[in-house]
Amino acid sequence: MTTIWLSRILFTALAVLAWHGPVAAAPSSSPPAWLKAHIGEDDGEIAPVVLQRARALYLRKVSEGKVRNPCYFAMDATRPAYTGKGDLGRRFYIICEAQKSFRAVSSGHGGGRNLKGLANFANGRQCAKNFGNAQDSLLTAGGPYVTAEIKTSFKGYYRTASGKDAVLMRSFVQFDGEGETANARERELGGHAAHVLRAYCRRKSPNSPYAGNDGYVPVGKLVNYAAGRSNGCTSWSVPAAADIVPMTKDRPTTLYIYPESEDIDAVAQAVKAHRSLSGAGLYWNATCLKQIDAPKFWSAASLEPIIAGYKKAHPSPPPQPLPICKGP
Description:
Layout: H1 3-20, H2 33-36, H3 48-63, E1 71-76, E2 92-96, E3 101-105, E4 114-115, E5 119-120, E6 130-132, E7 143-159, E8 165-177, E9 190-193, E10 195-204, E11 216-224, E12 234-236, H4 238-248, E13 254-258, H5 261-272, H6 286-292, E14 296-298, H7 300-313
Parallel strand pairs: 1-13, 6-14, 7-11, 9-12
Antiparallel strand pairs: 1-2, 2-3, 4-5, 7-8, 7-13, 8-9, 10-11
Organism: Ancylobacter mangrovi
Signal peptide: 1-25
Keywords: Signal
């Protein structure tokens, strides 16, 4: 068994104790020494400002009685989705201070959209340039969140490598935000595993517990997009999601996503003025900043009318039923 798997098993065991054991006392305002060892800007480390804000949010929600979970989350959306070696970039953080456990895993960022002729706020696969909180923008919005209920839904059937049929059930952790992220529920933002079923046909299966009123079930191909983009949600690899989702069941916790709109605007202004970010007390991942040149925040007030105009000019075709599957 590899060191990575041993580390993961140890982390999971500690986390299980944290979820089901007594509620841990709130951590002190200053990060403990063991946690400071994880602060930095290399892959798998957490930038100082991200940890500071994530801890502040967690401490505030604990003091308000909104959170009793001994673990909290953070994400640095300025970091690359994958490293130069092709490995997934670790930029989502699971921190359980009472158990002295810190884990960094991969996470997708919002892909955005290119509304040709109106606005282009699409993001590349490796780095995010565009951020925003507009409805239907498919963008990541940085700021404070609290995890809410978990919704598990049937996505369809797919064929495994061994040729057997399997069911895809995917759990979705709803997020509730505040301030610029207050529309998280309206935007249907949350966390889930980065796999989806690309349904391409329907099969008669009246005995299936998931069959519709017509007795059919969707059948498709299972697609893993852990190295890709999301629709604005926080997507984790399947193994990471298997650890993270149960942590929030009946025990809400906080998630802080960096950067917020003020950070984005300040960095953009510094880049335009050719000023040093560190000298101005600002932070952005250097690899991604070099790739995107300067970030941009698209507010709901400015972008939603554009999206509405695009929808009006390009109405979606009426939904059509999937074709009947051929063969077994």
